[in-house]
Design a protein that fits this description.
- The chain is of the alpha+beta class and about 600 residues long.
- It is about 50% helix and about 20% strand.
- It contains 18 helices and 17 strands.
- The strands form 4 sheets. It has a 5-stranded antiparallel beta sheet. Strands 7-6-10-9-8 form a 5-stranded antiparallel beta sheet, with helices on both faces.
- A hairpin with a 4-residue loop joins strand 1 and strand 2.
- Helix 10 packs parallel to helix 11, helix 12 runs antiparallel to helix 13 and helix 13 packs across helix 14.
- The longest helix has about 60 residues.
- The protein starts with a helix and ends with a helix.
- The relative contact order is 0.06.
Length: about 600
């Protein structure tokens, strides 16, 4: 009962199969879902980042094309356009007025005729600090912001052949507050003008653009739904921004300031914003796009939800499939185990129905065969037991008949004694002993002494048959008298010696029997005189189970080897002079009774 309780505490095969199936199905599903999401998220972020960087780069190139066009419009002032209005002295108001009128006509009519809607004012400051301006309120050098103009000129001297661009913060002249207009200044383009013939400095040209100049190119650029575009000059001054609040973030503004002065790239700020930048080779402006990362990965979150939904459906299907598979496999095994437990209680009539799974079907078939075999063996055993009981009853009944035979032989014996026929009395005595041993030969074991006593009775009886032609001699060492031996193993050998040796000789012969111990074995040597035997023929007959010759000899060999092993048995050799020499080898094993006596 305790063993059954221990078994009942073990994990069932259904639980194991269900756990294994769920592990094999759900774990790969979870791993694949996770890896898919991570890889897809990385790929998506990379694509979005590249797209954002491409957007910034394309926008920067479009703006650079516009700035290059402004630069191209001023080339004529360097090589073609005449600046004759600067040739005369400008130290009085009238020449200065005339020169200013020619300057306005030149820039409005010739240079920037197609860009006037983007231009707020144009200034020209000569090398002598005279001011020519399209802004009527700006006419003297004293109105110039000295700090800004010094900064601008220093920048121009660094790149004297290029158009330089500055934010409104670096404007050299600002209107008074009372004269502010809805069209606000945005950036200023400045370059140095020299005489192409003499290479002398003629002055500095300043073109101040209004806020429409940049906004028309950048206002339609969409950086996500909440992102912002920011343009700064080489000094970090803001030129244009879509969302001032986003650029006011301290971490974002600090990250923009720390950007490299050249090139383009991507950065993640505080794990919340993605920053893409591109630097103009023409103006040195840095265009920066800032967009929240959550906005970029928003579509990816939808993909994640879809993956989770698919994983949940896959997990549900895996659970159902695992349950069905575990049930399909474990149900016949559990049923077979239940039947075996039922059969263990002597209910051998149970049988299992074979299923569709090959291996389990083999188990079920084997179980059914086992039950049939057990029932058949039980039936055969019952039959054998019944027959054995019947044979025992018959043996008990047959034991009555030998008493009549013994009484008859005893009466013959006393009659022979009465008539003084000693030979007949000896024959009857030997015959009685012979029958008594033969009738008790159903026992499994006897002693070597009793076996030789039976042989001696047999030889006495045969002596009357052969009269004076048969002589025998038996030598038995006392040490081996109580050795275990099977009954009637020596009589067949003596019969062969008489039949094939003594009976064939006209002068008769002699039979010698010696039994002695040799180390752990007992040797029984039987020799006879008479005709020489064909030893090779005898050996072949011992090995051939189908031969009808020497059946007794072969039977003795099989009985000895069955009882003691193949290393024991019979060896046949030629006699010293004639006849045959048979050696029987058996182990030295004392009978239980003798062992008890010796122990006592």
């Amino acid at each position: 009962m305790s063993a059954f309780n221990n078994v009942s505490k073990l994990i069932s095969i259904r639980t194991i199969l269900l756990s294994v199936f769920l592990l094999l199905m759900i774990l790969p599903l979870v791993v694949i879902t996770y890896i898919t999401y991570k890889k897809e998220n990385e790929l998506f972020q990379k694509q979005v980042s590249q797209y954002l960087l491409q957007t910034v780069g394309q926008t920067q190139r479009a703006l650079d094309a516009n700035l290059s066009e402004i630069d191209r419009l001023t080339w004529t002032l360097l090589y073609e356009q005449s600046l004759d209005f600067l040739n005369g002295p400008l130290d009085s108001s009238y020449p200065l007025f005339e020169a200013n009128q020619k300057f306005k006509n030149m820039v409005y009519s010739n240079l920037f005729r197609g860009r006037l809607e983007h231009i707020r004012a144009i200034y020209f400051i000569t090398a002598g600090h005279e001011v020519l301006s399209t802004e009527n309120l700006f006419y003297t050098y004293e109105q110039v912001d000295r700090v800004n103009i010094q900064f601008v000129m220093d920048q121009i001297e660094r790149q004297p052949l290029k158009m330089n661009w500055f934010s409104d913060k670096r404007s050299i002249y600002r209107l008074k507050d009372g004269f502010e207009t809805p069209v606000r200044a945005s950036v200023t383009a400045a370059r140095r003008l020299i005489d192409s013939n003499t290479a002398k400095l003629r002055g500095y040209l300043f073109v101040q653009f209004n806020d429409r100049f940049i906004s028309e190119h950048l206002r339609n650029v969409q950086i996500g739904s909440t992102g912002s575009l920011l343009v700064t000059d080489a000094s970090g001054d803001v030129i244009y921004q879509q969302d001032p609040q986003l650029s006011q973030n301290n971490k974002i503004s600090q990250a923009i300031q720390d950007l490299p002065s050249q090139g383009q790239g991507l950065q993640i700020v505080d794990g919340k914003w993605l920053l893409a930048f591109d630097t103009s080779q023409i103006s040195g402006w840095k265009m920066t796009a800032v967009v929240p990362i959550n906005e970029l990965i928003g579509p990816n979150q939808k993909i994640l939800r879809y993956l989770l939904m698919m994983s949940a459906i896959g997990a549900l299907v895996a659970v159902i499939v695992s349950f069905l598979l575990a049930t399909a496999i474990s149900k016949p095994v559990i049923n077979l185990a239940r039947l075996m437990a039922f059969a263990a209680k002597d209910n051998l009539h149970v049988r299992d129905t074979q299923g569709a799974i090959q291996e389990i079907s083999i188990l079920q078939f084997s179980f059914n065969r086992l039950m049939d075999r057990i029932q058949r063996l039980i039936h055969e055993n019952e039959k054998q037991q019944k027959e054995k009981r019947e044979a025992l009853l018959q043996a008990l009944q047959m034991q009555i008949h030998p008493h009549f035979l013994y009484n008859t032989l005893d009466m013959i014996y006393w009659m022979a004694k009465k008539h003084k026929a000693e030979s007949i009395s000896k024959l009857v005595t030997a015959l009685g002993r012979f029958f008594r041993f033969t009738l008790n030969a159903g026992q499994e074991w006897t002693t070597l002494g009793k076996e030789l006593e039976h042989v001696e009775n047999y030889l006495q009886i045969q002596s009357f048959r052969y009269r004076d032609k048969l002589y025998y001699e038996i030598e038995l060492e006392p040490e081996v008298a109580y050795v275990n031996v099977m009954p009637l193993i020596l009589q067949p050998l003596i019969e062969n010696a008489l039949e094939h040796g003594i009976s064939k000789s006209q002068d008769g012969g002699k039979v010698m029997i010696k039994a002695f111990r040799s180390e752990d074995n007992v040797l029984i040597v039987i020799s006879n005189t008479g005709r020489q035997v064909d030893l090779e023929h005898v050996r072949l007959l011992l090995q051939n189970a189908n031969s009808n010759n020497h059946v007794g000899l072969r039977n003795v060999q099989q009985r000895i080897q069955t009882a003691f092993g193949t290393e024991y048995g019979i060896e046949v050799a030629a006699g010293e002079d004639q006849g045959a020499l048979v050696t029987v080898t058996i182990p030295y094993r004392l009978a239980a009774l003798q062992e008890d006596q010796e122990g006592a």
